[in-house]
# Entry
Amino acid sequence: MFGNILYFIIVLLIYATYQAPEAMEVSADQALLGLLALIAFFLIFTGWQFFRLERSMIAKGPQEMEPRLETLISRQSILAVMLFGVDIYGLGLPVFTGRLAFFKSVPTLEAALFLFLFCSHLVIIWFFAHRSYCLIHAEAVSRREYIRSNLALSIPILVPWFLLSAFTDILHLLPFQALQKFLATPLGDAIYFLVFLLIVAFFSPLLVQRFWGCRPLEPGPARERIEAFCRKAKVGYADILSWPIFGGRMLTAGVMGLIARFRYILVTPALLRFLTHEEIDAVMAHEIGHIKKKHLVFLLLFFISLMPTILFSYSLLLQMVSSLIIYFPPLYRLLGSAGLRWFMLNPSINALFLLMVFYLFFRYVFGYFIRNFERQADIHVFETAVGPWPLISSLEKIARISGQSPDKPNWHHFSIRERVDYVKNCTTEPDFIRRHHRKVQKSIGIYTCGFLLLMGAYQQLNYSSAGQKLISQLSKTLLTRQLEEEPHNPVLYRELGDYHYIFMKDYREAVRAYEKALALGPNDAETLNNLAWLFATCEESSLRNPEQALVLARKAAQLKASPHILDTLAESYYINGYYSQAVEAEQRAIQLIEKQERAHYEEQLAKFKAIRN
# Structure
């Protein structure tokens, strides 16, 4: 389940970090043909890989093939993620879907379309993996049920994302300008995300258990025993559910829900069928251990801090790399000879860097905590009357019946043998229990301190005067060095103009840099736009030049009619007294942008209409 969640989060990040290029290198027809070719390749290659696995099963027997099946599924899933990145960044598919009006109004639909594209690749994997799964486990799970169960395991990440995205779309469709303006600020965005995540954390178990097709466990000895165990442990819950994942043949249990009213205890039919009453008690002690040790609360806080931590780490790493490039000449020259000196300004490379930071953080930091939480839940049996031996026998029985190798670990679980050995060690050395509890507590404390320090460093670097001065100096040094080697590059002079304009507020130097850029590249729409905006809105009245601003803005709009350029054109019309033209230009800009980004443009439009009327 955690593997699927990781893949979907990465896919959402790939989609969210994509920035459309100024000019597309492929046409819509070429993009469609490329997409179909990639899907056909994936279909054929995946089928061939599983065909080879099935042939190996015939030769070696299915008992030793279970690790190879999981490895192959993981490898093909990673390939699916990579092909999705090609679809987004290579073929630029969002550029073409973004031209459709209903996607502009409700961006969630466009994101759902691309999630469906990724899901189709996973369905291809599961379609071909089904036969191998049945051969290994000797189970008659239908292909449809196998695919549906794998999809269902992704629900915990897809449902919160879909609800958050859809609700955001609805908010931006409503005429609440003040609220939209507040939500567009970093504080408003953080508060909105936090409140929504808390709501989802409390109520999503109600939705998830229905998506999984769970039903209340029928009255009988098994239910009565679980109820009695929960009463003795003083654990409240909404219901005990039968979890029919993979046709109910999977031996597992789970608990979800932060508060008793929306907490569900899940058990699969196979677990109840194969385990003894004492072993079921041990499994329940494990699940209740997650509740008692507040693991679900920590996971919520972890996900709340996830994106800020990744973004802070990403920003600080990027600035550290920039510093190394600038102040370590050999590295600077090496990157220059490889044509990579400006990699930190490339949106695609930035997105890849962000994904790498996310993967490392989720894979190793989250993986570390989830593994140790599982161990802490295992040793919770020592705090109950169950004792360790029913848990040990249940783990060994699960490995034996499911065909899972007891020596196979993964990034979010210790292997069954490691879990059994640790519980056995705790029976002879009770100090192991205390030491592990202290290890988890210290780890949470270190993580919390690290998060606070990271947040403080980010705040100092990006918002303090010293931090702004450092970033400014880095930018200036990098631009100066690059200009020494490329003195005829108009883009560098535009960047130098932006530096003087935005960082230094040195408007005269900004004008000189922009004019130099236009002398070298007179048809650069971005430079024309930036200089036009400066002439139209400059704080120094002596530098304002409404007539020249309009000339530049008109030319920029002819070259590239993007929203921010049309907004500059509208402002230029406005300061020259052409109010109707200002309204028309701003309306054109609004038609081209996403609903969430319209606040500034709609505010501008209201200003132009007010003076026109």
Q: What stands out?
A: The CA atoms of residues 435 and 441 lie 10 Å apart. DSSP finds 27 helices and four strands in the chain. The radius of gyration is 29 Å.
